[in-house]
Amino acid sequence: MNQKTAGVLGAGGWGVALANLLCAKGHAVRLWEFDSRAADNLRVRRALPKKLPGITLSSDILVTNDITEATDDADFICLVVPSQTMRSVGQLLNKSNLSKRPILVNLSKGIEVGTLKRMSEVLRETVDPGNYGGIGTLSGPSHAEEVARNIPTAVVAASESEQAAAAVQELFITPRFRVYTTTDILGVELAGSLKNIVALAAGMLDGLGMGDNTRGALLTRGLAEIARMGKKLGADPLTFSGLSGVGDLVTTCLSRHSRNRFVGEQIGLGRKLDAVLSHMTMVAEGVETTRSGYALSAKHDIEMPITAQVYKVLFEGKSPLEAINDLMVRDPKAESMR
Description:
The chain is of the alpha/beta class. It has two domains: about 5-185, Rossmann fold; about 185-330, N-(1-d-carboxylethyl)-l-norvaline Dehydrogenase, domain 2. Helices cover about 50% and strands about 10% of the residues. The chain has helices spanning about 15-25, 35-45, 65-70, 85-95, 120-125, 145, 160-170, 185-210, 210-235, 245-255, 260-270, 275-280, 285-300, 305-315, 320-330; strands spanning about 5-10, 30, 60-65, 75-80, 105, 135-140, 155-160, 175-180. An eight-stranded mixed sheet has the order 3-2-1-4-5-6-7-8, with helices on both faces. Helix 8 runs antiparallel to helix 9 and helix 8 (about 185-210) packs parallel to helix 11 (about 260-270). The longest helix has 24 residues, at about 185-210.
């Protein structure tokens, strides 16, 4: 194997899981943590017990609070930061020394509030083209808690460049972490982001004590509106039948590891959004993506009734039960996945 140098920006659970995966493959890995105290703690303890209990960070991985140290002479830079901080991290990255023109790999799932940009678009806006050799996104059903334990996982590497997608595939693929490729980065990023809104709705159903019939209907119609958005914006419709689409949707809506499903469940149980988020140690990307997904649907005049109802529950005080009732009594129509 041709050893590469990878800078991993973001030392949460997903960042640690991926850093360990890359290190185990023999790559040189530098893990960047924005908070200096957290970086010092991770450097000494080599663990995140609240986020990845039982997992130890390899002693071969450099932990640093200096983004230049993490990225200098890197072949790949993996951005594993919350989507709403991607712009500020991209701006920091642009000021560091990127002497090798690395491939930038986005591993965040979200749409920026306000600009309504996908993560690869944010990176293109914040990092000078001369500082990188390509941009890709890695997405799919891949909970950090399972990847960290080497549980078989399959994801997709997406880039407009076939060469960049193949390079990301080669970097990450292992016998337990299978990576496919696609050039439909638009569809992959939309699917990975918007499915978190449906996961919030799935959690609300669980909190309300709804059944399998309701959950099955939600996932199916949720996928339909995600695909509808993708088609309107120019994505390949088949992408939504793949790992970053239905694969990630089902996993996120049903898994006990899903932060978005958890937040929705707590709201279904009657808790307030602010109270739920204040006690979480990890980010539930779907909350802010609900804002941007709702705005994106309005901007492009795309019917997304589930997204609209989740938005009203989160930000307008509507009760989850009332939202379900309003979805059920909409005007009758033919079933369409378009």
